[in-house]
Structure formats: C-alpha cells, structure tokens
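Lay summary

Proteins are chains of building blocks that fold into shapes. Our project writes down both the chain and a compact code for its shape. Here are two examples, one after the other.
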Amino acid sequence: MIGKIISHYKILEKLGEGGMGIVYKAQDTKLDRLVALKFLPTNLTASPEEISRFEQEAKAISALNHPNIETIYDVDDVGGQKYLVLEYIPGGTLKSRLKQLKSEDKTFSLSEILDYGMQMAEGLAHAHKHRIIHRDVKTENIMMTEEGKVKLTDFGLAKLRGTVQKTKTGSTLGTAAYMSPEQVRGEEVDHRSDIFSLGVVLYELVTSHLPFKGDYEAALSYSILNESPPSVKSMRPDVPQALEKIINRCLEKDRTKRYQHADEIVADLRAIQQKISPASDKDRKKSKLPLFVGGAVGTLALIALIYILLLPKPATRSEKSIAVLPFQNLSAEGPYAYFAGGVHDELLTQLSKVGALTVISRTSVMSYEGTRTPLRQIAAEPGVRSLVEGSVQVMGNRLRVNVQLIDAATGAHKWAERYDRTLDDAFAIQSDVAQQIVAVVGAALSNTEQQGLATAPTENAEAYRLYLQGREYYNRLGYLQQNYEVAQKLYERALALDPGFALAHAALSKVHGRMYWFHHDPSPTRAALQREEAEIALRLAPDLPQAHDAMGMAHLLGHRDYRRALGEYAIALEKLPNDAEIWAHIGYAHRRLGNWNKAIAAFEKATQLDPRAADLFWDLGGGTYWVMHRYAEAVRACDRAFSLAPDYYAATIQKGWTYVCWQGQLDTLRAALSRLPRDADLGDIETRTLPHVDLLYWERQADSLLQVLLMTRVTVFEGQSFFLPSSLYAAWAHQLRGDCLAARAAFSSALVLLDSALRELPDDFRVHAARGLALAGLGQRDEALREARWLQQSEVYREDAYGGPELAETRAQILAQSGEASAAMDEIERLLAGPSWLSVHTLRLDPDWDPIREHPRFKALLAKYAER
C-alpha cells in the first residue's frame, strides 16, 4: 500500500494493525494535511458482521465532537474495501508511552495521571451522553498528542443504542485484561462497562501493572470475576488515598456500586488535583500584593474605583430589550441534539431583524446554558426587560416546541405557547414565535421587517434542517477546523437538495472564509470558493442581509479589501441592526484600515449587544487598545474576558504580553504560563508552547530553551500571523550560547523547511518573514534583504494598520541582523511613533535587537520614547 493513492489520499506509511483494522498514515492531497486511513485487514475475509461493525465505528465517531475523542473526516471504500479517514495523531499511544517509561525504570507523575484521567473521563462522558459505549477502552486505544492531550480512538466495538448486538450470544468483545465482569460473562453491557475499563487504565498508569492477570484467558477471566487486585498504595506508597478509592470504585465487580457517570470521576480527580496544587502560588501573590498597593487601603479603593469607572458600561435597556435563553433539548435521540441549538439560533436571527428591538446576542446568552441562575440575575447582567426561554423535543417526525416570554422584573409570564407539529414546520414555528414576541413587547414592525419574519428561506424542509445543523457546528467555540468541515458538509448537503437556498450559500461562504483566514486551508482555491458562494447568495437574494455579510467577509478575509467590506456590512445592518457579529466585523475592518476611534465605537456597540462575549473583549477590545499603546485599557479588557470565561487562557497570556510592552516586566506573563493547564487551548492566533519559548528566549535562558524545544517536538509554531520553525529558535539559542557551528546548522535546517513551505505558500507573508530571519542568521545578506523588500511591498505591510506593524517589526529585525542599522532604526522610529506592537521595553528585552543595541541612535530612541 505504501506509495499508492486512494481517492485523494497518498499512503505514506503503516501505523499499526489490530483485530479490527489496519491503519496507514496518508497525505490528503486536496487539503494538504496528514490523515490516518483505517482499512479492514486484508488477511481476513470480511464477514457481514465485520463490515457492519466497521460501519458502526464510522457512525459512532461521527456522532461525537470532543477534544478527547479522535475526529473522523470521512468514510469511503475502494474496490469494495471500506476505510475511514481519521484525524492523524502523531504522538503515539498511551501503551507505547508506558512501555518507554518502564524501560527507563520511570512512572507517570501524579499530576500527569490526574490530567490524563480527567481527559479520558471527559471523553467517555461525552460519548455516553450521546448513547455511545466504547467497549474497548485500553491504553492501546488512547492516543497522545504532541501537546499533551489524550484522545480516545477505535470506536469499532462501540454499541449504538438501539442497534442489534454485533456478536453471537455469549461471545465477548474488547481486550481481555481490560474487560468488565459483564463483558467476560458475555452479557449486554452499558456505559458502566467503560468505567470499569477506565479503572483498569488508571491502575496501570499508577502502578505500571495491570490489576488482573492470568497465564491464559480462562485464568484471567476468573481473576476479573472473582479476585481483588493488589492495593495501589502497596505498589506505590506516594499515591493519595483518594485516588486509590477512585480506582477501586471504578473496579467494582457489581456495576451498581461503580461510578454511574464518567462526569463523577472527572469531579473527584479534579478535587485531588486542586489539593496537590502547590500553595506557593497563593503565597507568592500575597507577598507581592504590597508592591502593588503599598499596603494602603485608600490606594486599593482608588484602584478599584478607577477600574470600575473605566470598564465598559452596560447599556440602559429599553422596554423592548430581550434575551433569548438557550433552549432546553428534550429529544431522546442523539441525532436531534443539534435541533434545540439550531432553533434557538435562528430565532435570535429572526428577532435581530427588528430594528425596534434590542436583542442580546448568542454568545452572551449561551453562558447560561445548563445553569440554574435565577431569572432576575440573568436579566440584570445583560440589562434586559424580557426573557424568552423554551424547550425543543423531537419524537420521530414530530417537533414539539414550548416557548414562554417572561417579564424580567416580576417573573410574570407575558406570553406562552406550545407547538406540536412535524419537523417540516420548523421555520413556521420560529417565524410565529418571533412575530408573537414582537407583538407582546409592543415593537413596531415595518413592512419589510414583517415580510422578513414571514418568508421562509427555503421550501425544502430537509434542506432547512441540514442548514440548522450546520449553524450549530459553525457556532461552536474555538474556531476548530473539524467543526468547520462538518458545517461545510451539512451546508453542501442542504444545497444539493435546494440549490436556490441563498441563506445556505451565504453560510457556506463564511465557512470557506474562516477556513482560509485561520490557515486551516490557506489555498487560493478556498478564497475563491468563499467569494463564489457569496456571489451566488446575492444573485439569488439581492436583499438578504446574511448574503451581504458573507460578501463583506469575502472582501475582508479573502481579499483584504476592507473598504468594500464596510460597504457590504452597512447594507447588512439595514435589515439586521442588532447583529453583534456584524458590528464586530465592522470593528475588525476599521481596525485594519487604521480607523481606531471607529473600531473602538464598533467594539462598544458589539459589547452592548453581546455583553458576555469574552472573545470581543479579548480580541477586538484588548488587541485594539494594545496596538494603540493604551495598555491600561488593554489589561482591563483582558481581565473582563477572563472573568467572563475562566478557561479563556489566551486572555491571560495576552495580558502578560501587554505588561511586557507597558512596563517591561515579565512576572505577569511568567505567572500566567505557570498556571496554564497542559491542555489549554489558546485559539488559532497562538500556540501553547510559543509564549513559554519566547519568554525563555527573552530571559536568555539558552539551555532551558533548547530543552523545551527538544521536549515539545514541535516542528513549526504556526498561527494566524506567524510561521516559525522550532529550528529557528534553536539557532537563536545556540547564538546566545556562543556556539556558531550549531547555530548555523539550525539556521540551515530552518531554511530548508521554509523553502519547502514557500513552494506550497508562495505569497504567505508569514513564511517570507521567517525566511528573512533565517537568511540573516546565516549571513546571506543579499537574500535576506530581498525578503525585507518583499515584506515592504506586501499588501499586509502597506495596507493593514493592525497586522502591518508586526510585519514591519520583523522587517526591522532582518535589517538589523543584516548590517542595515540605519534602515532598521527608521522602521523602529516609525513604529514607536504610531500604533504598533513595539515598545521601548520590548526593544530592551528582545535579543533580536542585539546587533544594533550599542548604536548611539538606538540608545537615543530608547531614551526619547521612554519619556513618552
């Protein structure tokens, strides 16, 4: 198989083989990414049972979407042989890692065990909520990513609720040593069988041994059914008693005595983690407090007062202000779990069309999903006068929706209705609910608004349902590629049913745009598809506001034509005046044009409509204030983002960098990194390791930097604005150590990688910027200066007031390291004088400026701008 091309996948190497399949590493030539292809083994005759089980694996994984579960991209067949296209996870299995540690006479640390245990339990909890049982949880089916995450794989033995049993009566599935007693007995199993297997895995992580043993299968089965495993603490005394209790409870032979839900395991493991966390963090905070407040209560009060006064104020709401809370999903079957979210999302869109209403946006209300927050408190936080809450239930082809409108001040019901119709009536229900709400709150409707609420976007009910499901995936947090890929497929299926569905064309255009902008697929083809779908939407429905928003995104993201984007957004606002996303898009466009006051005004309007949107405060607020050198406001915006979303670690990292630029102190960044969980997601503009690497570099800790680069095994640090080979950092570390030969070898390695990337991405400014730095490091002056000229002529440098300064800073570093001190300092002075990411403190700290550090003009610039 090696070297063969299956569909658009080129087979690169064999990764492994087991009873349920053979797995190959492959290159997806369409999307230019690595994937894993899993085929039925060629050496066995595929029975109907095996094919059925293989297809069941595809259904099981495709129903799941969780960071601790392997993603499935597609299922197909070649020559009658079925295969899955899966996420490629390069870190190896938990089993292989255990073997490696045993060979080195080492064990997993307690913190690693707790971390991995919580991740595995969270993945299982997600699967169980979707009525899916794995039935083969073992260390061999748990993959480790290079970033320290674990992912459950191989759902080939999963049993979907409602499917027939795939084995003969009395036969067993699973790997013997990890099987639950009920599996050993060949009984029907439920999710508690996975909990037993998880207990076996936890026992193995702690002790490096399996809890049940036998020289042959019958002896092993007897042990599982009748014997208690050796005490964990007898094999590893440092283990907390609480962890041993968790493992023992998982391994209860009577499943009624085990944990009944994986969520309970997560909670108990987290409690142990919190107890063993060093108390020194709190002590350090206490010891540093006097440095900030001088021990004076009056100073503290003044700081608090200033903070409160300068925070964005919640707007005073009119009588016609509404928050639509997330609809409760009462559907019994997993495939319809999306429906409540889709109905809720479209109702918000319908209400946002009414200019006389103020409607709190989706992001702000989603934070209340699943909570028991009192209605008055919910109303007070965004400052609204009315609340809408409801539930959605799908039973067969029936759709039942309950909706009620509540007076936020008194809790009294203003209006309530129950709809019991078919799935085909989904839009009609939403339209009626929207019109009833508008009438009850007394908002006046124009003829155009009335028509907008009543006109169905498609006559094909199935196409509309697919569109709703695509919206649910598109709106998921994290800007994750897999969510966009699923949304794309759903929109495309909707359009296959109704090619004239303009709203779906607009939505598909936006998916293409995000795939392109976040570099999931930075190909020109993707940008062209974005523009093409937006044009189709406008041709089909010239007055559709979502089509104009999509075209605005095509101008903004696909072509960096910010002025034309603003024109499209203005048209979209005429019919969607309360859409926070469009206001945010306006802010992004003004920021790129350097219209800073307009960007801030759009940010304030967006946060009035979406007051709990952490990403708005972090990015549009914090990022804009930071580049404008309004550091105190940037810090407050980051604090606001983190207060709204305590797991929004990107905000704490950005706050740390803001303090570096503002005061030249690294403590805030260092503290943020020390508290960063191993599996923290910093989004697409950052990676988890890069801030740590940069900090070590700026602290000139060359040996530690080299060690971290070796441990992380990251080839390229890649984000929205950077493409930096780890070998480039290794070269700089060797320079700090004075090892010229090692530095040159590392620079050469970086250049090879960048030249290869440039062949694939010839117009990517990130690659050109990094290549210039590598060439400068190698002393190839003329070629480095050519890259500096390329950057200067690029569209981002010339026309992007937000991203351009970052590119200009890199250009100045290339010039400084290529002996062009005067040209470098011209660039530095321009950046210090205007909006940029550069400050006198970053100039002092960053070793990249060492070649010109002693230049009189450089020192003069530091002195001049330090006073400002």
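And here is the second example, written the same way.
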Amino acid sequence: MYEDFLPFVTKPARYIDNEVNAVHKDHGQVKTRICLFFPDAYEVGMSHLGLRILYHILNARNDTVCERVFSPWPDYEARLRAANRPLTSLETNTPLREFDIIGITLQYELSYSNVLSGIELAGIPLRAREREAHDPVVIAGGPCAANPAPLASFIDAFFIGEAEEAVNELPVLHQQYAERRAFLEALSRSPGWYVPAFGNTPVRRRIVADIENAAFPDRPLVPLLRPVHDRVTVEIARGCIRGCRFCQAGIIYRPYRERSAACIKDILEESLRCTGYDELSLASLSSGDHSEIQPLMQELADQYRDSRISLSLPSLRIGTLTPDMIRAVAGVRKTGFTLAPEAGTERLRRVINKPVSDADLMEAARTIFASGWSVLKLYFMIGLPTETDEDLEGIIRLAQELFSAGRRVAKRHVQINITVSTFVPKPHTPFQWFGQAPQEEIKRKQAYLAARLNKKGIAVKPHDPQTSQLEGAFARGDASLGQVLEAALRLGCRFDGWSEEFDYAKWEEAFRTCGIDLAAYACRSFGPDDPLPWDFIRTGITKQFLRAEFERASAAEATPNCREHCAACGLGCPDGGSTNLGKTAAAKSARAQGKRTISTGRERSPGARIRMQFEKSGRMRFLAHLDLMTIIQRSAFRAGLPVAFSQGFNPHPRISFGPALPVGMESTSEFLDMETTRYVDPGEAQQALNASLPDGIIISASRIVPGNAPSLSGSITRYVYEITVPEALAAELPDRIRRFLSQDAVLIEKEGKQKDLRPCIESATVDAEGPGRAITLTLKDRDGVKPRIQDILVRLFSAAPEELHAFGIVRREMLYWDGRAWKSPMHL
C-alpha cells in the first residue's frame, strides 16, 4: 500500500490494512515468509473462506508469517506502473518479490489475466522458466487447478485438492530445502503437488478425510470494506451426494463429509463473539442434505432470533427444502429467497441429474411466499446439452405459475427475479466432452426469454455470453492458451469477471494474434477416446464413471444420490449407498470461549441513549462513511453492548451518526448516538468499545443524553476545519483569504443549479503559529445550503478537485446552536 496513491483511487479502503483480527509479525523473527494472492478485488477476496482458513493455519505457526494481497484496481495499478513501484502485501507493505512463496487462489477462469498482472507487478519474472534462485516460488491452487494447462507456463507448482493439511508442508519443505530447484523437487514428490517443469506425471488429488477436526479460524478477519458476502460463514459439509452433471465442485470435492451440529454451533458462536456480524451462513454444496440440518436450523433460529441475527443457507436444494426449514430461516430480514431449478422442464433436469419435479418447486415457492418473503430469485442455465425450445418454454411457464402462486398467498407485492446463465462445460465432469453452445444461439435464447417474460413483477437478468465463452475456452483449454494470456496482458485485459472492465474485443485480438479461433475453441467437442489436457490430474473419480454418466445424460436418465445408491464413482466410500454417508463419528468438543451478549428486542428494562465523540485518523481517513458505520456497529456487538434495534420489517441497530466526513479527511470531533436496551455506564461502554475498534478510530468522550435530545444530523450546523496548506500555495496567504472573503458571492454548480456558498463561510483565519501555512475555516449551514469544505478550497485556491490531496484537512469541531450560543453536541 502506498499512501500517496490513496487520494486518487477508487475505494482506497481496499488498501489500508488495520482490519480486526489481522495478524502482523516481525519478518525477522520467522524462517518462512508467505504471501497469499487472491487475483480479484479486496471485497471479492475477503469473501473467500478458503483464503481465511489458510491465513489462519499459516499464521498459527511460529516459524511462518503469512500476509495477503489482492489485485489492485486498474487505477491503482496504473499508478504502480507509472511510479515503477512493486506490488506489496497488505499487512506490512512488503514487496511481494521479498517473500519466499507466493500462493495464488485460482477460483475463476476470468481471473487469469489478474494472475499474470499480479506476478508482473510484483517484479517477478512472468514465466516460470525465467525465475532465478532469489525469486519467490509461485504456487497456485483452487478449483481451477483441476486443469492447470493454461497457466502452466507461469506457475512453479500447483496444488491439487484440499489444502488444510498440505499447506503446512510448505514451510517445512522450504526450510529443509533452501535451494529453489530442490524445494520444487521435494514438492513434486509430495502427494497433490504438480510441478510443470518436471512433466505431466499423474497427480492424485489430496483430500482432508476429517473435516470435523480440520483447522478453522477461531478469530476470522473482519474486513474494513464491505465484502461481497458479508457474514459469518461456516462450512457445514464438504462434497455433495447429488452428482449434478454440470457441476465441477460436486466432483472435485467428493467424498461427502459433514461437520457435526455441535461443532458447527461452537464455531458460529465463537465467530460471532469476535467479529460482530449479524448474519450466519451455513455453507455447503447442498445444505439441505446435512443429516442434522433441520434440528440445527431450528436451534440456531431459536438461539439468535432475539439477537437480531439472521440465518442463511446459500445452497438449499428444492428437493430437500421443507416447510419447517423455510420457517426456521424466516428470521430477522426477508430480502429474497433463492431457488435454483437450473432447467425449465423435468426432462432436462433429469439430463443434468437434478430431478426436481415442478410440483415440488411450486410447493416450495408457496411456502416461501406464505412465510413472509415477497421476492423469489430463480437461477436457470441455458445452452445445456440436449436443450430445446420446449425447455425454454418450461422456464417461461414456471416463472408465470410461480408469480401467480405468489400473488395468491403473499401479503404484499410479489417479485420474481430470474438469472439466466450460460452453461460452461468443465473438466472432470460428465459434460466435459460437450462443446459450449455458440454465442449466437445463446443470444437468441436470451432474447426469446426476455420477450416472453416481459411483464410487471418478473425480471430477467442474463449473463454476458461473451464472458461465458471466454470462461469456456479457458476451462477446457490446453497449454497453447498461455500465449493468449500473455497477449491479453499486454493489451490491458484485467478484471474480466467485472462487466465494467471486461473488453471482449481485446480478447478477440489476443486469440487472433496467436492464431486461435476463440469461438471454435470454446465450442469444440471431444470424442470419448480423445486425450484431454487435464487427464494426468486424478481426482479419484474414474473416467469410466464420468463416461457412464455422460451416456445416462444423453438418455435423460437420473442417477440416485450417493446415500440411496453407490454408483461406484471410484472413491470407494465405505458408507456409500447408506444414510450414514458423511456423518461424523462423534461430536467435537466445545470450542466457544464465551457467549455473545447483545440486546434482545424483548427486554423491558429502561434503556439509555449514549452520545460519544470519536476521532478518525491515519489510514482510517480513507474509510467511507457507510463502512465506518458498519465497523462501529460490529465493534459494539463484539464489545457486548446491549444495542437496541429498530422495529418493523427490516430492523437495524439504533446507532446514528453526525454529518458524514469526506473520504481522505481526519477528524477529532465526530459524534454518534447509541441506544441501548438497558442502562449502561457510558465510561464502561467507551472503554469496551475502544478495546474493539481498529487502530485509527478512538472514542474520546461519552455521556448519557435525554431520549428526546435533537438528532445529531438535524442539529449540527457549524463546522470548524484546520487546513494545512501546501508550501507552493502558502505565499501571501493572508491576502488571498482577505480577497476571497471580500467577494459578494462564491458560486458553485450542483446538479444543474447554482448555489452561493459565501453566506456559509463564517470566518477564515491564518494560524499565526504555523508560519503562514495553516488556516482555520469555519462553515455553517445556511438557507438550505450545506457547504462542502472541498468546494470552498477549490474556489479559495483556484485548485482542481484532484489537487486537494496536497492539503491536510482535519475537522476540529462540529457545533449546534442552542438558541444562545454555539455548543458541542456533548454539552447539552
């Protein structure tokens, strides 16, 4: 992180560190330095549970430091390149090339351009064969490592499988084999490791047999910037018993294994205690298949309902969804319920081995609407093998029938939101031999659905077929695509999974430059005996099984789930075909160290309204106001304060703030009001909250205020700023201010309207102790105009808005008028 870049980039909080539960170690006190690189934006990477688990495991070792880095957004990358500075880690700002090992997560094919960009920005030779003894060893793992061929030229070693146990081998082998080639040779001899330099010898996927006792963060990282999935997540099961034929995860995470309900509850309780989240997520490929899911959900719903903590199951399968389960998650917030039929007809669902009946889907939807939800989200795929227009008609019919059913049973307006993605064939699945549907055909089908579902209450959102085509090309690509990736890097391709950054024309040019037809490459089919680029990666699932599933799909025959019948996939599960498959042998001992004590909405003892003054300084000045509000709310929950909640459909913590501080500015005088359900001593609340807040935010004063006291946002109307002026603009500063204040009007244009800020400028004085370089500026709201300090400085110094980063701006006071004098909100 380079602090001088932050005023110029979008979302600077991506780069500032200071997160709760982050680990900072002295590099001089460890033997192995590892940096985990997630090749996407911070808010995506910090949603990834695997990254948090590896970070926890490695930092638990006394001989190892593990830090993180995420792909810098294009504006930050441009500044890195222009200044010729290397990419650095988040925790200690250490250049990546100074680490011993760089570990890259391969979660999504469209992040490959970010992988190459990150290696290059780190100052590490792009191609593995060009690296020397002093360069870090670049390793990669994750679901996309199931076909390492497209990236094989750039990665020193791939890990295939589940890494909780194997990741401990990295520091051990690194310390045992200091020389680069010897270290790679040692990795290649270990199960699960593929080193391209030593050839495509068969590599068997590593499996964690016992996830009940697998490592899991006891103090999860709490991001400063709201991530994509902003909640406590615990993996309740790994693998899947269902065997959907399009699903790569259902293959590469077999066999099916569960965590016990006791272990899950312990992890959740401890995670809530040390993070302050207000949502729990029970994650797996099919949460409803957990053998204890129904009583577990009911226990969690009962335990946390009064604490306003909501429960979500992101992958509930329609066939496992019961009315009791739906009612259990009908907790605090009902924003939308998601179902994934995937296909519009029962025939096509048998083809993909997701044999859900229309009747089951309708019954689930009626229960969802009757339980209080008004928005139902549906996921469908188009371009599936054997799909016809009749299957598209099935999507249309289902959407209309679900909408009608919702209107009959829901208590308010009903909305059906349909996401339509494009089928992408993946390696190691029964559909790996099928070619992807041509882009023109996908566009025709998207238009057909959009035209037929164009009605109020039903919205259709199709995925971009161009990104799906690129994903398809790389998912089943071979080593020849390495040159395409390098060409795309030079053309500026980055963040291809983000619609605002994806540039299909550049990718077409990259493929064309390398003499490869992108469309033909994505749409190619393989024969049953054709060699496949990923054949040497052994998942444990036999090719014979995959081929048999391919043939059953062609005949629209479903395969029973693994608890009903063992289809002999190759893993040889001892409990296959029985209800005991995946169950834990014994419950894990309790891990929780304490219980979270936040307010229940049913308490009737007198509450309090605590007003607090706080400071925001250092890197935290780059935190946006909404993210600041979230951090303080969660810090209050971690501190165990009995925060009150609003009433109604979507309750929120009753914590309100004064006027927002612009990003990039510091303050010694910010304010918040916190309402509690019972009396709390303000000094004790202040002390508890300060112990939970990240560095750069500190509560400096607190007191009880009357419940009917004016709100902070409505009463504060006067602001005092201290501005440190750049040396180049400090000359004749008193004269400049005098001329500025002598103007009759200071006009700015906002939203097509002119506003005069001159009446809002109360005073501007030069600080005598700051040798002419500091001024104090006092502003006040007047005539409905709320002045912004940025607008005043732009006019005062004839500066461009982007030049304001050179000014040091601190908000020293915010005041309210009590009818006789200006006072601090702390002095009611």
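What can we say about the second shape? The longest helix spans residues 389-409.
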